[in-house]
Every structure is written in structure tokens, then in C-alpha cells.
Specification:
By secondary structure, this protein is α+β, with helices and mostly antiparallel strands. The chain has three helices and two strands.
Length: 90
């Protein structure tokens, strides 16, 4: 049996209410989703919808973390090697 396709790693399908969340809020919501799914107390239909939202929250959190990482690193080219160097505070 073929495996279901995993959602694209495209943030354009993330709902507006998630896109405006802080990292901390999105992580809290994601943790709550995991608790609900692990409890086994949700119907199959609700599990699918909840899983989809969890996937969207996960991608949002990953994007926020990547953005933060980019803000604290800079790229340097030394002797033909590219490296990420932490930005030193002034």
C-alpha cells in the first residue's frame, strides 16, 4: 500500500492565525495537539484535522527558529570555505 504524501514544506498553506503566532504560542499549541493525539480520545476525523494543524504549527516553529538562527549568524568566506559565524554583539 502506498504511503500517504507528506505535506509540502511550503509556508503558504499555513493559516493566517498560525502565521501571526509567536514561537512560544505555536509551540504551546503544538504540545497540546501532541497530548490530545497521544490520549487516543479523539475521533479519526478529528485526529486527521488535528494532525494537519500540528504539521502547520511545526513548520511555523521551524521557520521561526531558522529566522532566529539567521539573525545571529553571518556567512564568511575564508580560503574558499564558507562558514557561519555568530554575530558578536556591539
Amino acid at each position: 500500500m502506498p504511503r500517504p504524501e507528506m505535506p509540502r514544506d511550503d509556508s503558504s498553506d499555513i493559516p493566517a492565525d498560525i502565521r501571526t503566532m509567536t514561537f512560544e504560542r505555536a509551540l504551546e499549541d503544538l504540545e497540546e495537539i501532541v497530548r490530545r493525539l497521544e490520549s487516543g480520545e479523539v475521533s479519526l476525523e478529528e485526529s486527521i484535522a488535528t494532525y494537519t494543524r500540528g504539521t502547520q504549527l511545526k513548520r511555523h516553529c521551524e521557520a521561526k527558529l531558522e529566522s532566529a538562527r539567521e539573525q545571529v549568524e553571518r556567512i564568511e568566506l575564508r580560503g574558499g570555505t564558507v562558514t557561519a559565524v555568530p554575530i558578536q554583539p556591539d
